[in-house]
Amino acid sequence: MAKRTKCIEKRIALLNATLHLVNNNGFHDAPMSKIAKMADVSPATIYIYFENKQDLINKLYLETKASFSKYAFKDYLTSLSVETGFELIWRNIAYFKLNQVEEANFLSQCDNISTMVDEKSRQEGLKNLQPLLDLWERGQKEGIIKPISPYLLYAYAIYPLAFLMKMQHRNDFELSEDNLTEAFESAWNAIKI
Amino acid sequence: MAKRTKCIEKRIALLNATLHLVNNNGFHDAPMSKIAKMADVSPATIYIYFENKQDLINKLYLETKASFSKYAFKDYLTSLSVETGFELIWRNIAYFKLNQVEEANFLSQCDNISTMVDEKSRQEGLKNLQPLLDLWERGQKEGIIKPISPYLLYAYAIYPLAFLMKMQHRNDFELSEDNLTEAFESAWNAIKI
Amino acid sequence: MAKRTKCIEKRIALLNATLHLVNNNGFHDAPMSKIAKMADVSPATIYIYFENKQDLINKLYLETKASFSKYAFKDYLTSLSVETGFELIWRNIAYFKLNQVEEANFLSQCDNISTMVDEKSRQEGLKNLQPLLDLWERGQKEGIIKPISPYLLYAYAIYPLAFLMKMQHRNDFELSEDNLTEAFESAWNAIKI
Amino acid sequence: MAKRTKCIEKRIALLNATLHLVNNNGFHDAPMSKIAKMADVSPATIYIYFENKQDLINKLYLETKASFSKYAFKDYLTSLSVETGFELIWRNIAYFKLNQVEEANFLSQCDNISTMVDEKSRQEGLKNLQPLLDLWERGQKEGIIKPISPYLLYAYAIYPLAFLMKMQHRNDFELSEDNLTEAFESAWNAIKI
DNA sequence: CATGAATGAGTGTTCATTCAT
DNA sequence: TATGAATGAACACTCATTCAT
Q1: Residue C123 burial (CB < 10 Å; 0-12/13-18/19+)?
Q2: Site from C146, C151, C170 to mutate, D interface, most D CB atoms within 10 angstroms
Q3: Which of A13, B125, D38, D98 is most buried (CB neighbours < 10 A)?
Q4: Residues D33-75: tens digit of each pLDDT
């Protein structure tokens, strides 16, 4: 039992170290040796928990994505109206990006740099958005949401948050509560009929 | 007195090779040796045309950004109405992303990976959007565009195109003429009053 | 918990290889790759034992200087008379140069090429001569040694040995026991009152 | 005629640039490109005047040595007494080291770093000291100079100046007129019977 | 004669990964 | 399980020298 606990802790420490280093130094300055040092283990130990560096990144991506998903759909029920449900999810996502900055930033990097996460993991990660896609489909059937590709809906309703987060991270822009309301307004205007 | 002349073709070949490799292999797998091989020169030759790798990336970024800017504001006149002017610019940008896939993709990577282009070059590159910001300001004065931060306007009017381009590049989605019109509609809905 | 232990033998092999290569090929033709090959390790292994090339050279200098110092003051006691003490130290130094040819040659190179060893290490290395300087000071107080700068004393009493060693190394000259006695005579005549 | 003059000037500029760079940056940071830049010519031009880098260094060594020799035996006549002649030459050499710092420093580096100048040039350079060796031989015949190897005479009479010059160059020591007289005294005491 | 462009071979150094314990 | 030592292959970059003009 003690062993198991210890193991899980080291695994988590390694994932956290990777998250931190990739965000702060960039992928090309997050060598295994630094990750190991930050997690307070030997470089060789990483290979007990992960197959190789790619596997470490993939696993971190998937687990962070799952954590994002949990956050995004907190309190969401399919019984909610399309409009209420969408605002709930949208705000959850926004708050995730505001409060879980490192996780959000890491996911954004993975989604933008094609070579970072492998195709299989990316596909796997996509599944996490299913409830939102279902909501949109329902909205389209009800004539509330524009009858356009979910890619377009995502591009205009969710993706802009990534830009705003990036700008906030660079201190070029501050995502105040007011700005957030304006942003939601724009998102809704973009996709509602 | 005579000498072999530094030929601009080699410089261009090097920039093209870099563009291609960064797009296909990612920044962290675009070593100088591969760039040289692809441009059909010796690795040492790169250093005749560029100070170092960072300088090569910076210059490529700035020149690609300038080329983007030229494309984005083609046929644009400040005498056009806000609505017409915006649609013109928006479509120019969209076509740039559709037709100059590699350039667009490279710029997207540069803007997303903080450590890729240095701060000075990024600031320099930002200037290229000024005419669009001016147009929005005019639109706000005329009561046509929402009185919100330009960052929000950009996030909802322009940034979504980056996502659509990425999806198209991955063959997940096709940006047909119809989709483009839908996308423009959403962009306009998001920012117009 | 167990691990492969960093073996001191490799460190020594690396220092020896460096000593040998710098002496035979000169500082500018003693690349890390050759040092590694001669010590029978991978180039990367050097960096486990030394920070970088400068550090390797510095450490070799300091350790060789310390070894020289031990040799130079063997059997020396401050209770000896100035004359006896000086001859003892002088002969120790001469024998060091005769018997530890590579060490002596390396130290000579380091002291002559200003850019080889960094200033801090050079200053550190100077401390090793203190007992001789003390002896000279005593000799001056006793009216046996000329009341001149220790730099002058060193220049005429010790430094000439470097030249003789160099000539012997080039087979231009042989430092026989007779020559050694003549050399000591000259050294003593140069500094005694 | 004009051409010839121009050529000689470039050759001299190259030799001066090399002298300066080797002294200030050390041999390992005096690349052909820097030498060319400092002499205000193209790197390729160096190869019109010199076979290669080794040849450039060799020639510089020999010409500097010749210049040294001219300086060393200024006003010297074989008709002078051994004692007077020796002091004259000794002081000439000392002043050369004091006044022609760069030349002296360069010669010292060449004589100390075995791999810098090739054997043939070194042997050639040795001839420049012949008048001094002749003087010593005469002194020995006259019973004024110790009957010991000229290498020993050189080691104690001339070589110490190199050390004093080096210390002066490092600002550790100042070769005042008084010190110079003390130094000469030591030199003479070391070799006279 | 003189040039700047061009380069192959090499530099010191880093890194993901494996090995021996 | 866990380790620090060890490494081959690679990296960005430099340099003495040659080439084409």
Answers
A1: exposed
A2: C151
A3: B125
A4: 999 999 999 999 999 999 999 999 999 999 999 999 999 999 9
